[in-house]
């Protein structure tokens, strides 16, 4: 605990300072505070990845991760390092080693993961912003479950140097805020100008296949948001006739590649450290070990074809979809949590497969529990997506 900083909650924070690392006082964002997910290198501190046995073997990082450097140079103070689900391979936010961070918007319910500590720190008002990562939904889902802003950036657009990988084919830098303006400011800081593209849609898309396993209120909110976006842009809403069976194939292929790449990276360590991971997390890695070369090649072919289809679909469009299939489930219902994970992957895999930016937008629905809507655009339209999302919440 510090005199002026947030109280130390070990479920949220791994390390906390006042600040932990000070930003440049001459930077344009001086006075802002940030949390950093425990996958990013911070000089002088080891990367723990949410696994106690892993952390015990790591040496302090020599250099800051690229995204951390950018924040510090802009004047942002790093308040501390936040918890992640083990090796970032979960959407729940529950960690067998360190516990479950609180959900500020829905006490007693899961916070969402894997960027759980970062989302909770922002939602609780302990920091202004937080770095997370998004492979299969690890920013978009916690943002939805806690009613805050979040973004998954265009794949390979924001520098991932100094970031621990999960599945490089899908890994991206992301961040959380409580307001659209700051989400945009961090985007201007982290998204390189050379990779930016204007959002110039000729249509607004919704996909009935993405609504099939989604709670009705959330599906209705996504549809209303699409109509509102179309009105703002002077466009029409069109349905994307994605066959449900093709979506099933995409989700299965996404999972195959994610697990396979994760095992290639961490498999040796997991093999020599039996019992270090929660059973459900280890099972996801083991699925990657079990994947045959033929299965992986087939999955990569499916993803490549799907990526081409999405590229053509989205190049002059914006897709409006639920951020998650439901509001956050209760923390003590593991079967429901796993079921919801499967349904939610049907939403989150779209941006992952296409390498597309996706903004998780709060405040568009009604009801006692939080949920967000996602805006998905063409590669490089990250900043324009945030701007459009901000207009939607103001209208």
What features would you describe in this structure?
It contains eleven helices and eleven strands. By secondary structure, the protein is an alpha/beta fold. The chain has two domains: 13-195, Alpha-Beta Complex (Amidase signature (AS) enzymes), CATH 3.90.1300; 203-245 and 296-394, Amidase signature (AS) domain (Amidase signature (AS) enzymes), CATH 3.90.1300. An eleven-stranded mixed beta sheet has the order 1-3-2-4-6-5-10-11-9-7-8, sandwiched between helices. Strand 7 (203-206), helix 6 and strand 8 form a beta-alpha-beta unit. The longest helix is centred in the middle third of the chain and has 29 residues, at 244-272. It is globular. The N and C termini lie far apart (41 Å).
Quick summary:
This protein has 395 residues and is of the alpha/beta class. The chain has helices spanning 52-55, 66-73, 116-123, 140-146, 180-190, 216-233, 244-272, 279-290, 293-314, 334-354, 382-394, and strands at 13-21, 33-37, 77-82, 129-133, 149-152, 173-177, 203-206, 237-239, 317-322, 358-361, 373-376.
């Amino acid at each position: 605990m510090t005199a002026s900083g947030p109280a130390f909650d070990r479920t949220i924070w791994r390390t906390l300072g006042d600040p932990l690392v000070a930003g440049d006082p001459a930077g344009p964002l001086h006075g802002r505070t940030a949390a950093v997910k425990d996958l990013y290198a911070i000089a002088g501190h080891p990367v723990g990845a949410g696994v106690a046995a892993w952390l015990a073997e790591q040496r302090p990082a020599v250099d800051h991760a690229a995204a951390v450097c950018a924040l510090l140079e802009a004047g942002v103070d790093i308040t501390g390092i936040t918890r992640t689900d083990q090796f970032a391979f979960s959407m729940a936010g529950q960690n067998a080693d360190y516990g479950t961070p609180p959900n500020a918007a829905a006490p007693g319910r899961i916070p969402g993961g894997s960027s759980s500590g970062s989302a909770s720190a922002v939602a609780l008002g302990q920091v202004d912003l937080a770095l997370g990562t998004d492979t299969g939904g690890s920013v978009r889902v916690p943002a939805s479950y806690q009613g805050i802003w979040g973004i998954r950036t265009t794949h390979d657009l924001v520098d991932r140097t100094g970031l621990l990988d999960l599945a490089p084919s899908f890994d991206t830098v992301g961040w959380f805020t409580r307001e659209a303006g700051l989400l945009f400011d961090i985007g201007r800081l982290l998204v390189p100008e050379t990779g930016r593209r204007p959002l110039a849609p000729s249509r607004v898309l919704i996909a009935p296949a993405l609504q099939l396993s989604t709670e009705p209120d959330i599906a209705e909110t996504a549809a209303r948001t699409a109509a509102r976006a179309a009105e703002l842009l002077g466009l029409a809403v069109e349905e994307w006739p994605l066959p449900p069976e093709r979506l099933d194939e995409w989700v299965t292929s996404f999972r195959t590649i994610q697990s396979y790449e994760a095992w290639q990276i961490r498999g040796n360590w997991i093999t020599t450290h039996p019992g270090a991971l929660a059973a459900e997390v280890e099972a996801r890695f083991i699925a990657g070990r079990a994947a045959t070369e033929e299965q992986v090649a087939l999955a990569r072919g499916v993803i490549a074809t799907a990526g081409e289809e999405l590229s053509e679909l989205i190049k002059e469009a914006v897709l409006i979809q639920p951020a998650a299939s439901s509001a956050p489930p209760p923390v003590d219902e593991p079967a429901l949590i796993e079921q919801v994970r499967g349904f939610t992957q049907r939403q989150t895999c779209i941006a992952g497969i296409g390498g597309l930016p996706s903004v998780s937008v709060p405040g568009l629905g009604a009801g006692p529990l939080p949920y967000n809507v996602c805006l998905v655009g063409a590669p490089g339209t990250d900043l324009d997506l945030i701007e459009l999302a901000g207009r939607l919440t103001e209208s």
